[in-house]
Records
---
Amino acid sequence: KLYEFCSICLDDNRYPIGIGQTTMDGDDMYMSGMKGRGIIPLHLYQDALWNIGPRTEVPYEKEQRQLFITDQEKINENIEQACAQASDNINTLNLNEEANLG
């Protein structure tokens, strides 16, 4: 959503390195092809705010990409359901057509 606070993450780390505020909603970000400034950074790792604090290191844990496997399984399941429904619809149309011809 527009003007929401959000975390800023790197592609390969599951932990955020900062916080920011969105300058557009998700649909606008998508339609712009993720080009332009979608987030205004408010605080980042090793910035001035970090320097006045305890200066702890950002935890690093390699992002597990299993989410995509689950997403792909869900997509495959949806495709199978859609194909089964389409097949049922075609069979129903064929039966109706045969009944009308006979």
---
Amino acid sequence: MGRKPRRPTQPARERLFRRGADAGSQPPKEIHHPEESVRIQRSWIGILATLLVLLGACNRRQTASPVKAVSGEQAVVPRVRIVPVGTRDAERSISVTGSLIADEEVTVSTKVAGRIARVDVDFGHTVRRGQLLAEIDDRDYRIQLDRARAGLAQALARLGLKPEEADRIPPTTPAIEQARALLEDARTQFESARQLVETGDIPRQRFVQLQKAYEARKAALEAAEYEFRAALAAVQAMKAEVAFAEEQLRETRIVAPFDGAVTERLASPGQYVRPNDPIVRLVKSWPLRVRAEVPERAVTAVRPGNEITFRTEAVPDTEFRAVVRQVNPVLDARARTLTVEAVLKQPDQRLRPGMFVQVKLTLGVDRGVIVVPRQAVYTIGGLSKVFLVRDGTARERQVTLGRDFGDWIEIQAGDVRPTDWVAIGALENLVDGMKVQAERVPPGRS
């Protein structure tokens, strides 16, 4: 075996450093030995190992803390308030669309021709029945009436009557009465002569004279009666002329046929109009009517006298009531719907003809509908659920909601019974199967 090299002593190392410095060449180099490098590496490894141990301990402490917290929470049983499930009778109804329509809507037209003298109303004006809307120049019609009245007076004069006696025409005249008296006298003489001529007491010639006289008196009476009938007919004709002229004169004043409002004015003063030309358009807005189309499946539930309710977007916070007055006896063959009209029970100035409405029709009454407080329903992700509390345990039940009754809502489907109790408030903290402390709350105090 060879010998190990000897390490230079301290004086020897000093001499070497001094020798290099005196030479003025390169600066002296520090000499590292392998033992010193190993010792330094070991020191760093120890430091790193210590840090790793400390970090591991911290992680274990942080991991253990939540476990302990969770264990502590599970150990505390939460307190929840519960209320009993309710039942109620509820109307079964459907909603259909409809419209408000006016009770009457007409275009007021003229009946006579002429030039418009005045128009007293305009768009938006309210009018009363009989109120003047417009007037046509009536001078020509007054002349026509005067001419008809003159003709009537002339016809009455033929009967020996005055114009004011036009309504008191007697059934006969003095001329007729005189003709009847003369006829009766001639008839008496003729009957006597006929008996005498048979016995030969009067000549045949005298009998013939009396016979002709009787026939003449008879013809005279018939003529008088004919003349009377002709005069009477003339009077009646002239009375009709007067009535027609008066009617024509009245028609120069165009009046409102009912209480309502003007929706459009169609003529102006100075305009010449002919019969049936429009003047104004009127609408009778009360009583308002609701017209709706009822589907075939609900036809049997709609009868005259039934009450319906409706809402409109114009007055969203109010529900209005109406009574069914008319039901179309025939369904629409294409749409399979039935037209129904109802009349509002109370007037309301906020409603207008032409408004769109949603009509609710009651089809019947459902008995014993299951309902829960709105606070008992928890909805997330489009799914609704409630938590029943049975024997101190919360039981989650997915439900289908039905009709809304304000603070209560119908449970249309789901495993909920009328004898159950449901939790209210802080439902997001409950899970199925959780033990809870139930605090019963009366329904009215929930």
